[in-house]
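In the previous lecture we treated proteins in isolation. Real proteins rarely work alone, and many bind small molecules. This record shows how such a complex is specified: first the sequence, then the SMILES for flavin-adenine dinucleotide.
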Amino acid sequence: MITPEKPELAEVLEVKQETSDTKTFTVRFENPKRQKKFFFVPGKFMMVTIFGFGEIPLSISSSPYKTGFMSFTVVNVGNVTNAMHSLKKGDQLGLRGPFGNGFPMQRFRKKNILFVCGGCGIAPLRSAIYAVREKKEEFGKVELMFGCKNPQSILFSQEMDQWGKQGISVQTTVDKPSPKWAGNIGVVTSLFKNSVLSPENTVALLCGPPVMIHFALIELRKKGFKDRQMFASLERMMQCGVGYCSHCNIGNRYACIDGPIFNAAELKELPVKEE
Ligand SMILES: Cc1cc2nc3c(=O)[nH]c(=O)nc-3n(C[C@H](O)[C@H](O)[C@H](O)COP(=O)(O)OP(=O)(O)OC[C@H]3O[C@@H](n4cnc5c(N)ncnc54)[C@H](O)[C@@H]3O)c2cc1C
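The predicted 3D structure, ligand included, written as tokens:
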């Protein structure tokens, strides 16, 4: 039986304020040997302890090819995330993991990739975007479609400019524009009409609020995507991360070990409304 491990000490290397409620934390294990052998695939998550407050699951938002550190992009929504937001460079935290299945990146080779994300859902996809960008020759065309509440809540806008220059087609849209906003307005699915990717040789990677995933899957099916070509992250309350505590149990699966990434065919078999 797999039992939960103890958190290992890590230190904060950098904290970046991304938007009013979101920060990116760059961290590394204090034990250099542990950091050196640390490896993950995009879509995997860590259990992060903020001492005195608790432990939460967070997706790794940095590149899997940058091995000296890892990043988390965190929205301040409650008790633990609020405490994490007060961490500064040099502070300590605890890490367990990586956990979860991650995106099956090997199966995406030679395929076009469509990233569809909403809000902080870009965090785990950012890691996959880096992976695809760093092995450009292994993949086809790449499109990123990103929906946010308003222009102030757009994450990683400078990086998106870079990704655009590196051949990724990046499109953003907002629900509520500001007076200066000259870009797209509407939900992320309103961008799908602009996609030049043929569904036959494309996989779609989705992360965002359940309602976004629900409608995005419906619209992608209309475009001709099959269920096995669409992968979404199903984030569930979880505590142990190793299938031990049953907090993230869905039907006969656990989001922490069988997921959090499921393809749309698998989602249909779970007792959840596609989310
Ligand atoms: C696999 C996975 C990956 C995640 N990756 C990220 C990430 O990269 N960035 C990020 O900002 N957040 C991520 N989350 C969500 C994050 O874990 C929660 O926001 C966090 O646990 C909230 O803890 P809290 O103590 O601050 O909030 P609480 O005070 O516990 O609650 C505040 C709100 O957050 C909701 N919430 C609490 N725990 C969870 C949970 N485990 N999952 C989802 N919602 C929860 C509650 O329903 C409540 O509405 C991820 C969740 C999972 C399961």
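Summary for your notes: The pocket of flavin-adenine dinucleotide is lined by residues 45, 56-59, 72-75, 77-82, 120, 123, 235-238, 260 (CB under 6 Å). The chain has six helices and 15 strands.
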